[in-house]
Amino acid sequence: MADAKKLAEQLKKLNELRGPVPQELRDRVAAQNKAQKAILDALKEGPKTAPELAAAAGLPEDRALWYLVGLRKYGKISDVAGRGDYPKYELKAGEAK
Amino acid sequence: MRELEKIEVDTLVVGSGIAGLQAALDLADQGYSVAIVEKAPSIGGKMISLSKVFPTLDCASCITTPRMASVSHHPRIKTLTYSTVDAIKREGKTFTASVTRKPRYIDEKECISCKRCEEVCPVYLPDEYEQGLGAKKTISIPFTNAIPQLPVMHPEHCIRCGACARACPKDCIEFLQEPAPVEIKAKAVILATGYETTPMTAKKQYGLGKLPNVISPMAAERLLAPHGPYGRVLRPSDGMVPGSIAYVQCAGSRDKSIGVPYCSRVCCMYAIKQAILLSGSLPIADITIYYMDIRAFGKGYEQFYNNARAMGINFVKAKVARITEDEKHNPILRIERQEGDSAPAEVKHELVVLSQGLLPGCDVSKFNLGAGLNDFGFVQLSDETVSSAVTAGAGVFAAGVVKGPRDIPDSVVDAGSAAMEAASYIRKL
Asked: What ipTM does this complex have?
């Protein structure tokens, strides 16, 4: 693990070199966190499809799908087996409950 | 800048796609030392991201990964990834290449590829390996079977929270890392810089990349790959399983209006291959290929095409004039049939793949090595009837698509020929 003091120094120097973290990036990460939380919250009610999650989280459908696949890749949610035009997703056991 | 690293080898190979890998291996196995330089964070080129290959339907990574592993472990091959060749100078009988190792912002020697930095990183961004369909983190290992298994940090997406550094058990995050210069001296150079597909923005009639369900063939490869972004075939606009899929052939070649009048040689076959794979994963889907003419010229290709027809894939001889979409993002193709009733018609599909052509991956004329280019930016051979690798520049050889569009078997054969020509050139020095 990094030494806390050394890390703080590195990050401080980085801020001096590159200037502050751009507001645009901060806004993007804030929007990401909000969207992911909304998706995970909606999934607490049970398995849902991408358009259902988009509606619940107030996101465009393609954005909802992109967030979904990110959460799926990093192990927060998983596919529900079954047929149908729109596959369903569910919370992975132990995640965000 | 870090301290200058000096490497001296017999041959420099630029590019580590299947052609570069094969050329490097063939040379190293004959006893020559090789340095292979790759701009991406992993070796493997385009081929490692493909699902399967035509006409055998062998899994692409099953063919590529053993070669990637052999190259990275070979005692006579030095692999430089995430590095750019900035210049190559000819000095008498040797070449001196100036290479820059781009910073990964980690200590490459200490990293144990545990992925803890990636797990804790809070920022998601589009994963270019998945053609933007999937997500990755600001610090992440490029893909599952990447070699080397080292994460790359993208500082422009970093919020400097320090989570990665706190999670790293080896203390190897280096936020302040700088590019490192490398000097490579070699007796011969093999150019294997491959291709890029014609961009989605090439043709305004096809939506300029703004229609979410009109995708590139590389994106379709990822949809079909077992570890692809969705884990199954879905369309990007809403995650629906597409019931009707169309391929638009010659969407990036044989088209003077976009400056690509040549045939890209692989699009007919990859479209047929993807259509066969799609009908395997989506048995009830309608799959249509709109084509000018099908060019199935290699060994077993005609049979592959006939098999696709027999499987029920629709081949429609028609030119697609325009693609628009309805309110549900279903692409609408305006087509003119070339057979039978030739009246224009509008056809709706749920997912469309543009069969893009191949453009040169790199303008190698910037290296000034004496190797000429043809009108389209591909390397010209000095005499194609004598050798498939010798260029007009002494000691400069070409392998794979850098010479013009060709498929994987041809690229592999070519690479062997480039290695042989380079070896014989070095022996005579």
From this structure: 0.94
